[in-house]
Request: fold
Amino acid sequence: MTPRAIVIGGGLAGLAAGVALADAGWRVTVLERGGALGGRARSFTDPASGDVVDNGQHVFLGAYTQTLRFLKRLGTDHLIRFQPQLTVAFAEAGRRPAVLRCPSWPAPWSLAAGLCGFGALSWGDKLAMLRVVRHLRTGTVPSSTGDSPCSADDHLDQMTVAQWLATLGQTPRSRQVFWDPLTIAALNDDPEHTSALGLATVLARMFGQGSSAARLGLATVGLSDLYTRPAARIIEQAGGTVRVNTAVAAADGDGARATGLRLAGGERLTADAYVIATPPHELARLLPSSLTSRDPTLAGLSRFTASPIVSINLWLDRLITDQTFVGLIGRRVQWVFNRSQVVTAGPSTHVALVISAAAAYVGQSNEPLVALAREDLEACLPAARGARWLKTQIVREHAATIRTPPGSQAWRPGPRTPWPNLSLAGDWTATGLPATIESAVASGAAAALQIACTSNPAALA
Ligand SMILES: Cc1cc2nc3c(=O)[nH]c(=O)nc-3n(C[C@H](O)[C@H](O)[C@H](O)COP(=O)(O)OP(=O)(O)OC[C@H]3O[C@@H](n4cnc5c(N)ncnc54)[C@H](O)[C@@H]3O)c2cc1C
Reply:
């Protein structure tokens, strides 16, 4: 008989788990609380312009191997446009624009060469940074003791990014131009508060492997077109079902196994196995305390807090940059993405501005956010001065990603739970990666494997 699985949550993690299980011969039901699939990585069509708007610009890395494998399975990997080599343009008020361009050389020479030619930094800044780069050849990064590699994950997880960079002798300017923007973009948190392990992991994955790992890629379609519809199709073609507007209220068990789910409307559903792919607070609400109290990691779910991202979409009467994206140094808006170059074909001049680690901004109304965006753009991009703003639209993601303060790695549970037929997934689980697309996809694959192996231990062989 075909085994049946229910996946709770139709974000990247849930859909990656659902597709993996469908491919392994399972009949999968995906239950999604929202009106559409996609969770924190979704898109919609702006009714006035007809343009596709993401809930926030998502950047893919060449190092996202699991994501690229997932998209290949969906037949959409060609819809990510990667740079031939890592190239990041920066603009700064009162200074000439600068471009970090890393040639396609083996790691770490690619980054070293890029830094040497990067006009936004002095030679003193660059020499300090090359001390970090030196260690990337082996895919490891130095800990604060100077030369022990980051196999000492625990050690790195006990300090903040700011503390780690201080021990590595990084200059204030290298922090302002490179380290802090990278930390905020990759970890969506303040370098003064977030664990150094996350940044060390990003550096090792981006710059400690081949130069193609560091390339950045953008989807040429809306995020929902990139993966939600193709994933749902695969699940349904394998006999499964995808239900939106379907909130799960609780998971039940008999002490040894999960036995069913109760939906918010009262309906009860059963299956052979279950994957919960929701954020941590929702997971804590779904599981009975008799289960969470048996597992030290599950008992700590309430410790997770989240960091917001604010995205300001603008439609302008002219192009304000010919770059695909630009980092603004020392401003509140950190990145400007030229959506017209990547997604929207035609005359539209749609740009998406990103404010990550946006705790100070997420509560603000549209008016001050638009004012600060205008100020930042006009200060850094001369072409923005005098541009007419035709329309703005702001997306506030209050819980964009989990925060990872020092010591938080130990809080992240793996896929396994005390109920062998219930697995966990989500970008926040223990994937060894920051809470990103890649972590979400990796967690979904791990949860599916866990379910498949538990129900058929021979599959492990
Ligand atoms: C604005 C923004 C920008 C980002 N930029 C990047 C980027 O550039 N690069 C990158 O790698 N990552 C980025 N991320 C992070 C990335 O989007 C997430 O890591 C990823 O989408 C998380 O997927 P997930 O499936 O783990 O969680 P989610 O997407 O949160 O999925 C969980 C799903 O569970 C559903 N759910 C919750 N409770 C229930 C319930 N009781 N019953 C049924 N369903 C339920 C939710 O509705 C949701 O759809 C960004 C995130 C945001 C918000």
